[in-house]
């Protein structure tokens, strides 16, 4: 098994360790009638941002994107070193040393990302996403260093959220058959969203996030996009949650955080499943085809909607299902993907090497 696949599996395991305690804690907050273990929840945001998202973004930078841009992934020892660094940082999540290890992992990504600032193996010049991806990693270093001294969890959303914006021009192009988006609008949306997260919570933050939503939604061309229905549905839902986050930033911290962290980020991950498949091809060496399911989208968004309803002050026993539905929705997406991938790998008599 290639190291890229091991990195994806590590991310999935981290998702379990970060997500399950969060589900139990939120149910306990809602008044679940039986005692639930909740002591691990204080590290939930760290595990999800600097564990799960850092791992899958690291896989994209070190393996999948590297294969496409330069025709080769980062050396195995480099990928393994990155994976171990992230894992150890999580084991030390109760200490300040965890952030130093995160900085080391980010440094490894930045060092490898130098290749994206030079022409590709086909002679293509770096595009908007190349530069924004590099800038996002640099910004994340400053954010992480800042968090060593001040505990502001929402600031960490800058890393995965801006990474999504960075690669949007590439991802949406892949999903909708090479459709071009308006790079300048995406760059301005990137800047507005960055500022909105930095100055939260106030009216200025709400307006900046709204501006980021408007420019990114218009610049991505989702309204006029044609082609596959599944990604258009998922991405449209993602941008709806981003819009709602600009409103929730004024009303509810929990609704604001999760409308971005769950609603925007995970629906985007679901929508650009083409990119996940790209990772899996790079990680396994086998050309795989995955049939997406609408079940994860329905469960995730139904759970998030009921969570927001609870955050707005409503109570009902049915709302206890909010966190489990979100968790099951996310897990079902990855289980559906990995199930089909491993099935195809077993049926492949000889590993099909990717064309260099």
UniProtKB/TrEMBL annotation:
<feature type="transmembrane region" description="Helical">
    <location>
        <begin position="45"/>
        <end position="65"/>
    </location>
</feature>
<keyword id="KW-1133">Transmembrane helix</keyword>
<feature type="transmembrane region" description="Helical">
    <location>
        <begin position="154"/>
        <end position="173"/>
    </location>
</feature>
<keyword id="KW-0812">Transmembrane</keyword>
<feature type="transmembrane region" description="Helical">
    <location>
        <begin position="293"/>
        <end position="310"/>
    </location>
</feature>
<feature type="transmembrane region" description="Helical">
    <location>
        <begin position="185"/>
        <end position="201"/>
    </location>
</feature>
<keyword id="KW-0472">Membrane</keyword>
<protein>
    <recommendedName>
        <fullName>Nitric oxide response protein</fullName>
    </recommendedName>
</protein>
<feature type="transmembrane region" description="Helical">
    <location>
        <begin position="129"/>
        <end position="148"/>
    </location>
</feature>
<feature type="transmembrane region" description="Helical">
    <location>
        <begin position="99"/>
        <end position="117"/>
    </location>
</feature>
<feature type="transmembrane region" description="Helical">
    <location>
        <begin position="77"/>
        <end position="93"/>
    </location>
</feature>
<feature type="transmembrane region" description="Helical">
    <location>
        <begin position="259"/>
        <end position="281"/>
    </location>
</feature>
<feature type="transmembrane region" description="Helical">
    <location>
        <begin position="316"/>
        <end position="337"/>
    </location>
</feature>
């Amino acid at each position: 098994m290639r190291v890229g696949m091991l990195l994806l599996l590590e991310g999935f395991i981290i998702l379990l360790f970060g997500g399950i305690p969060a589900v139990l804690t939120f149910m306990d907050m809602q008044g679940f009638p039986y005692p639930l273990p909740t002591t691990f929840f204080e590290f939930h945001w760290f595990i999800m941002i600097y564990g799960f998202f850092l791992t899958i973004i690291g896989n994209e930078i070190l393996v999948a994107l590297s294969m496409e841009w330069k025709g080769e992934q980062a050396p195995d020892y480099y990928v393994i070193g990155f994976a171990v660094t992230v894992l150890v940082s999580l084991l030390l999540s109760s200490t300040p040393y965890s952030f130093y290890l995160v900085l080391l992992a980010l440094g490894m990504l930045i060092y490898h990302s130098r290749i994206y600032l030079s022409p590709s193996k086909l002679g293509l010049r770096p595009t908007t996403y190349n530069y924004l991806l590099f800038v996002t990693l640099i910004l994340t270093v400053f954010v992480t260093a800042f968090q060593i001294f001040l505990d502001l969890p929402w600031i960490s959303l800058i890393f995965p959220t801006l990474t999504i914006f960075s690669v949007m021009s590439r991802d949406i192009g892949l999903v909708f058959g090479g459709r071009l988006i308006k790079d300048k609008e995406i760059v301005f949306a990137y800047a507005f969203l960055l500022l909105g997260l930095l100055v939260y919570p106030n009216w200025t933050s709400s307006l900046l996030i709204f501006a980021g939503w408007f420019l990114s939604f218009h610049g991505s061309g989702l309204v006029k996009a044609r082609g596959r229905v599944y990604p258009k549905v998922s991405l449209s839902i993602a941008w709806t949650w981003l819009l709602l986050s600009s409103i929730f930033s004024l009303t509810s911290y929990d609704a604001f955080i999760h409308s971005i962290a769950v609603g925007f980020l995970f629906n985007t991950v679901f929508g650009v499943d083409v990119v996940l498949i790209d990772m899996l091809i790079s990680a396994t060496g086998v050309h795989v085809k995955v049939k997406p399911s609408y079940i994860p989208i329905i469960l995730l968004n139904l759970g998030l909607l009921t969570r927001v309803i609870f955050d707005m002050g409503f109570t009902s026993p049915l709302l206890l299902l909010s966190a489990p539905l979100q968790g099951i929705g996310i897990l079902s997406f990855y289980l559906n993907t990995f199930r089909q991938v491993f099935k195809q790998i077993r049926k492949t008599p000889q590993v099909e090497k990717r064309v260099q």
